[in-house]
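Quick review question:
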């Protein structure tokens, strides 16, 4: 046999008798079902995750539609359902929504979605898609709601921040009202706050206002003539030709300042005193050293008394508020005068009209310092069944929810004599501070100190007490800090919330919008029985 033929025959014999190749083929056939089994598990994992995402989107859609579909046609319902569903569920990653169906009845909303989930491994066995049929049923309740927005409108909110707040808050309103313009089961209110809170000039003669000067705080900064002649702060406003009461009120004496105690003429301490910043020593627009708000001449016609009165006496001098006098600055232009520090827009009390709350949000403007306590307490008074605002339903009303959403972008703050000083006023100023809703620091309404940090610590203590008062009345309290890096205030707001997961820290505008949307969803979840 030729050598080459013999070599070929030997190699053929070797190939036919080599067990290694047979093992490889057998292993390959054995591995295929293992791959399919493992791959099927992976595909089913993706399938279950897809179903969960679809379920979440369906539930969110049902919550959004609850209490909105009564006046809508089926086409409108279908259109809104598709819009909301696709806002909450993005197709892709091998998931295709084939059908979305909505059926609304008097007491419930049923939603159904059909989808195909693409397989990655099972298609090797001929299974290219897994069908996903997901249902959701929302049983509508007849629960009613009062929701109050207590929003920081201070100077640090100027520019893009106040615009971001408006946008985020309007998103919440849109989610709660939906397509309904006048809601039968939802009332909303707005309390913009800064240094003080504005209750609205229309309440000048309200029974809960101290129109007769009976509250001891009313005459705190004036001389004996003010009391002897039976004058009120409203009388002094009326004497000043270019300034009228702007609508702000001062804090009541402790502990009424952090209590939901009804204002009553039978107890003058409970009445609310109109905000009035006294004219401080110095001629109009030319304050004396260490003072900041001189808008009238201290002595009429600049006739100097002899001996010259003390600065405290000049400040308390009632006669300078003569009929027709003007509050003016050093250039003779109009000045805020007694309204200095009242910068916030008026409260919008409870309303079930969507346009009212949207318009009020749009009108917000940023100015002034931060007083969280006053903002929160007026939020409580808006939902309280007791005066001053008594539109709120009685506490404990069955199937009724009272909710406050409190937002701040800064800590409680007051003015200092200069950016480098820890004092609120110079040592030549016996008031020890600028005027505010607690009067002057020297009055001791909050704490008698010249140091701003001591004063602000006391403000934080009052805020914590106000939070307890709100929660003690069974009100659900959400709190939000916005672009705030102060750990102490974050902790204060976290502890203020009804529970820790009802506090949100929003580092930017996008997060703030998402936070308001999440709160709207959480409120909507209370609107369903199932």
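Suggested answer, residue by residue:
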């Amino acid at each position: 046999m030729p050598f080459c033929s013999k070599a070929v025959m030997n190699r053929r014999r070797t190939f036919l008798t080599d067990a290694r190749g047979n093992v490889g083929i057998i292993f390959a056939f054995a591995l295929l079902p293992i791959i399919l089994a493992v791959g099927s598990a992976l595909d089913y994992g993706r399938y279950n995750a897809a179903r969960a995402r679809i379920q979440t989107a369906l539930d969110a859609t049902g919550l959004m539609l609850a209490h909105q579909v009564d006046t809508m046609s089926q086409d409108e319902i279908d259109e809104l359902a598709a819009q909301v569903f696709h806002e909450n569920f993005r197709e892709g990653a091998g998931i295709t929504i084939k059908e979305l169906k909505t059926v609304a009845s008097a007491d419930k909303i049923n939603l159904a979605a059909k989808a195909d989930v693409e397989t990655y491994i099972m298609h090797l066995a001929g299974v290219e898609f897994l069908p996903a049929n997901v249902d959701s049923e929302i049983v509508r309740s007849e629960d009613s709601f009062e929701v109050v927005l207590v929003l920081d409108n201070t100077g640090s909110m100027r520019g893009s921040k106040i615009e971001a707040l408006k946008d985020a808050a309007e998103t919440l309103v849109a989610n709660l009202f939906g397509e309904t313009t006048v809601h039968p089961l939802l009332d909303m209110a707005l309390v913009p706050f800064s240094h003080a809170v504005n209750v609205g000039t229309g309440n000048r003669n309200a029974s809960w206002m101290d129109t007769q000067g009976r509250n001891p705080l009313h005459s705190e900064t004036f001389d004996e003539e003010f009391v002897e002649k039976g004058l009120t702060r409203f009388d002094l406003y009326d004497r000043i030709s270019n300034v009228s009461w702007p609508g702000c009120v001062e804090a009541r004496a402790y502990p009424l300042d952090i209590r939901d105690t009804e204002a009553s003429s039978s107890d003058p301490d409970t009445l609310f005193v109109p905000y009035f910043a006294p004219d401080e020593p110095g001629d109009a627009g030319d304050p004396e050293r260490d003072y900041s708000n001189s808008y009238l001449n201290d002595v009429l016609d600049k006739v100097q008394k002899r001996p010259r009165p003390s600065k405290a006496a000049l400040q308390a001098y009632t006669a300078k508020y003569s009929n027709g006098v003007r509050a003016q600055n050093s250039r003779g232009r109009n000045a805020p005068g007694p309204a200095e520090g009242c910068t916030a827009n008026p409260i919008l009390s409870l309303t079930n009209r969507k346009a009212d709350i949207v318009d009020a949000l749009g009108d917000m403007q940023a100015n002034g310092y931060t007083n969280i306590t006053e903002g929160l307490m007026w939020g409580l008074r808006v939902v309280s069944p007791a005066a001053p605002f008594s539109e709120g339903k009685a506490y404990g009303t069955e199937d009724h929810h009272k909710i406050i959403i409190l937002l701040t972008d800064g800590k409680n703050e007051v003015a200092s004599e200069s950016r480098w000083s820890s004092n609120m006023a110079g040592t030549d100023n016996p008031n020890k501070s600028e005027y505010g809703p607690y009067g002057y620091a020297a009055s001791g309404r909050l704490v008698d100190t010249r140091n701003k940090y001591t004063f602000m610590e006391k403000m934080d203590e009052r805020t914590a007490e106000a939070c307890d008062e709100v929660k003690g009345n069974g009100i659900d309290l959400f709190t939000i800090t916005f672009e705030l890096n102060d750990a102490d205030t974050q902790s204060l707001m976290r502890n203020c919330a009804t529970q820790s997961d009802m506090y949100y820290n929003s580092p930017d505008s996008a997060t703030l919008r998402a936070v308001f949307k999440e709160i709207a969803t959480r409120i909507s979840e209370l609107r369903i029985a199932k």
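Why it works: The CA atoms of residues 385 and 394 lie 5 Å apart. The first helix runs from residue 3 to 17.
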